[in-house]
Design brief:
heterodimer; A: 275 residues; mainly alpha; 0% strand; globular; B: 420 residues; 2 strands; extended
Chain lengths: 275, 420
């Protein structure tokens, strides 16, 4: 409470205490559900209730020995990595172009490029379903990779664009005046500076694809089912503890992504602070 | 070097420096645009094209025209006041025979059945019982004998209305409207009118979730913006971790927590608060709780960044001028958070409007939102026209709200509100 310097009157102190109390409850609301299902995946019983009858790895064994679950994990990885790579290329190029392009149409183009984030997933999915079915792209990895790339690229454009905004263009000019070719200047001067931005863009892109389920629901055949898609049918049919094991695996991936993101942000702040 | 530059400039005295600079600038702009182009082309193929295709399907109406081409042509100059003439009957008989041979009757029957319940039976029974082309001049009599529906004027107006090539039928149906036999737009009969309810429900759920998010998110954002950075950064993890956790994991977590033998009911029972398990899931309550949980970070993050930008000097100034804390908060602090409140609320509302997965998994039949029906008509019943028309309405609402959102956050960093 001593953090807040403006707590002079009793009513202010009450208001601040209330803020802390309400916020704590909201934090519990946000975190508790995610934490609550984790221990259940280590239960030796097959009911999703507390108290746990005992500890066991049986549901993880179940996951690892199930071709269905393992195939879905593999699919999530393949589609996630491929759409991340593709969206990095398209998104970085576009962000570089948009940072130099000056036109009154720029806000319009930017809105178009970012629109896949805002348009409801079902609309994109239905449109793609109609569009890709006649050309044989439904029920294929390629179709899913293309669709996920469209959803993920806006995040790359945003993060790389934000990094470019803070990039000092004089450095590129200096490189050019010292005789560097544009490609050389990009590789040796621009790229190292925007690398953290590229990395966060890649993380966003991967997380977007890894988490996506609506498009997969419409477009994937039985062979291309991803981990979230498998969870969706699992939840629909019957919630077995194997699903909680899958949830723990998915959450672990999220935590790794978040931790990497935080590390990048901290590093970036340190660099800015030092400069 | 300077000499070279000078001679270079002298060599082309007819091109003034200004124009050369302009030309260089133009070349730079073209190069910049060329970098954006691959993404634009890509999105055209994987995003804009498919959505345009969906919008086209909302008005496309060629099934009947393809299956019954002569009938549609014969009805083109029918005034619709009386029964059509013998030519139209003969055309229909010939079309039905051709369609039966080609196996395409079901396509037209399905479309006509949307417009008039029971039309499928009329068409299939006629196709079954029409042995051969009727003698010239007897088509009306023959068809009327097979099915008396061919003596009704409305049967023929239904075919004429469905003759395409484009139609407002699906868009009207998406708004619970239809054309009556005289072509006037009227409200659909109550047993077919469900979409206004669905849209109202989608709106009410989205609004409830937005209000819940604002009520829960405001104190948290205020706390995070007021605490010193070392502490708020730590607490921020409580917001960011759920944000990065898979939607499926979070939805699954709520089912596990709220089901009748779930953690919450068990806990309440153990505490002696309840005897019978409460029904917390597969109803509106479950949908609102799970959606609020999923969307809360989208409220907290923009609120936090708008509050972070408010200088504490304002509040100190208000206090030094004698404003009581509550007045200072209401008159000085709150108005400055309004852009953040607006941006956060709009973002949550827009995202909630299109929700599909969470209501589908934790909602009951009466809690399904518009996206559920779009998905249902696309994959289950294959009524693609209606699915597309409902999608067009949802898309329009989203675009309008997103345009308002764009105006609100103009000048703020683009990342405001998105994963930061």
């Amino acid at each position: 409470m001593s953090d807040n310097p403006s707590l002079r009157t009793p009513s202010q102190r009450i208001a601040w205490t209330a803020t802390i109390a309400i916020s704590s409850l909201v934090f519990i609301f946000l975190i508790a559900p995610i934490l609550a299902i984790m221990p259940l995946s280590f239960s030796s019983g097959s009911y999703l209730t507390y108290p746990l009858p005992g500890f066991s790895w049986r549901w993880y064994d179940d996951f690892i020995n199930s071709p269905r679950w393992m195939n879905s994990l593999k699919n999530s990885m393949i589609i996630g990595v491929a759409s991340t790579l593709l969206s990095m290329v398209l998104g970085t190029l576009a962000a570089l172009g948009l940072s130099q392009w000056q036109s009154r149409f720029k806000p319009l183009v930017l809105a178009f490029v970012l629109s896949p984030v805002v348009v409801p997933g079902v609309i994109t999915a239905v449109g793609l379903y109609f569009f890709f079915a006649p050309i044989g792209l439904t029920g294929s990895y390629l179709g899913l990779i293309l669709a996920h790339t469209a959803l993920a690229t806006p995040f790359v454009v945003i993060t790389v664009g934000a990094t470019l905004q803070s990039f000092d263009t004089n450095l590129a000019r200096a490189a050019a005046s010292l005789g560097a070719s544009p490609l050389h200047a990009f590789r040796r001067v621009i790229l190292p500076r925007i690398l953290p931005g590229l990395a966060s863009g890649a993380l966003f892109a991967f997380a977007t694809s890894f988490d996506e389920v609506v498009i997969v629901l419409f477009m994937a055949g039985p062979e291309q089912r991803t981990l979230p898609r498998e969870m969706f049918s699992g939840i629909r049919e019957n919630i077995s503890p194997t699903i909680t094991a899958a949830a723990v695996i998915l959450t672990t991936v999220s935590v790794i992504l978040l931790a990497t993101m935080e590390a990048l942000r901290r590093r970036n702040e340190r660099l800015k602070g030092g400069g | 070097m300077t000499e070279a530059l000078l001679t270079g400039a002298d060599a082309k005295p007819e091109v003034p420096l200004k124009r050369r600079l302009k030309r260089a600038e133009r070349a730079r702009q073209v190069k910049a645009l060329a970098l954006v182009l691959p993404l634009l082309v890509f999105l055209l193929f994987t995003f804009a094209g498919p959505i345009a295709g969906m919008l086209w399907r909302a008005v496309d109406d060629r099934e009947v025209r393809q299956v019954l081409p002569q009938t549609v042509a014969a009805l083109a100059d029918w005034d619709g006041k009386d029964l059509p003439n013998e030519t139209a009957y003969a055309a229909l008989a010939s079309d039905i025979l051709a369609a039966r041979a080609a196996g395409t009757i079901a396509i037209a029957a399905k479309r006509l059945n949307y417009a008039q319940n029971g039309f499928r039976t009329i068409l299939t029974s006629t196709a079954r019982n029409l042995k051969a082309a009727p003698e010239p001049g007897t088509a009306r009599e023959t068809l009327g004998k097979i099915n008396s529906a061919w003596r009704e004027r409305t049967t023929w107006t239904t075919i004429k209305d469905a003759g395409g090539p484009i139609t407002g039928f699906y868009l009207l149906a998406a708004l619970d409207l239809m054309r009556n036999a005289d072509g006037a737009i009227v409200t659909a009969p109550p047993d077919q009118a469900i979409y206004r309810d669905v849209f109202a429900r989608t709106f009410v759920i989205s609004l409830s979730v937005t209000i819940l998010c604002l009520m829960l998110g405001f104190p948290v954002a205020y706390l995070l913006a007021t605490l010193p950075p070392e502490r708020s950064n730590l607490l921020m993890i409580f917001v960011l971790l759920p944000f990065w956790t898979s939607l499926l994991v979070r939805t699954c977590a709520w089912i596990v927590l709220l089901q009748s033998k779930g953690v919450v009911n068990d806990g309440l029972h153990w505490l002696g608060v309840i005897d019978e398990p409460l029904r917390l899931i597969y109803n509106r309550f479950g949908v609102c709780v799970a959606m609020t949980h999923v969307l809360l970070p989208f409220m907290i993050l923009p609120l936090y960044s708008s509050m972070k930008a408010i200088s504490p000097a304002y509040m100190r100034a208000a206090a030094s001028l004698g404003a009581p804390p509550a007045t200072a908060f209401l008159r000085i602090y709150l108005p400055q958070t309004l852009p953040g409140i607006g941006a956060g609320s709009l973002l949550v509302f827009i995202l909630a409007l299109g929700y599909y997965i969470t209501p589908a998994l934790v909602g009951g039949a009466a809690d399904q939102m518009i996206s559920y029906f779009i998905a249902l008509y696309t994959t289950e019943t294959a009524n693609w026209g209606l699915a597309s028309a409902l999608g067009a309405v949802l898309l329009l609402a989203t675009i309008l709200l997103a345009a308002v959102y764009g105006k609100l956050v103009q000048g703020q960093p683009v990342t405001g509100g998105m994963k930061n």
